[in-house]
Known about the structure:
Elements: E1 4-8, E2 25-30, H1 31-40, H2 48-66, E3 80-84, E4 87-94, E5 99-105, E6 109-111, E7 120-131, E8 134-137, E9 141-144, E10 153-155, E11 159-165, H3 169-172
Antiparallel strand pairs: 1-2, 3-4, 4-5, 5-11, 6-10, 7-8, 7-9, 7-10, 7-11
Amino acid sequence: MKTPIDLPxxxxxxxxxxxxxxTATESVLDSDVLAWLDEAVAPEPLxxxxxxxxxxxxxxxxxxxxxxxxxxxAPTEGDWQPFGPGVTMKVLHHDGxxxxxxLRLAPGASLxxxxxxxxxxCLVLEGEMRIGDIxxxxxxxxxxxxxxxxxxxxxxxxxxxxxxxxxxxxxxAL
Length: 174
């Protein structure tokens, strides 16, 4: 017995032997014809290279749709503000708890000994800085632990450093 299947316009067709109805419908093939077509047109598995291409295309489309939600600051964008004698600061991001920022230290600039209310990460991008007797050159990383006092920070030749941590007390005074 052949039973016609009615589907809403634009919907996927049901599997063999299924039927569906809706208020806005269009007539399609009978269920036994659909079952025969389903058997005749079995999908061929994709080879690994084709799967990789499809995956990369999908990921690129998803990433392109997500890009406007990212936050990017070009080197020429953003404001450098005074932070202390010979030190300027450029805020990159503040999430309410932590601050990501750049500090530019002029040759001979220094910051006093201080502690951090949360861990603070520091990456020297250019030049060299010293924390007490510790010398950190470009590419070097330093983690200032929460609640631990660290020594005076100096930069005899100048430096550009990236930091992420709590909002520094000097910023709150600006």
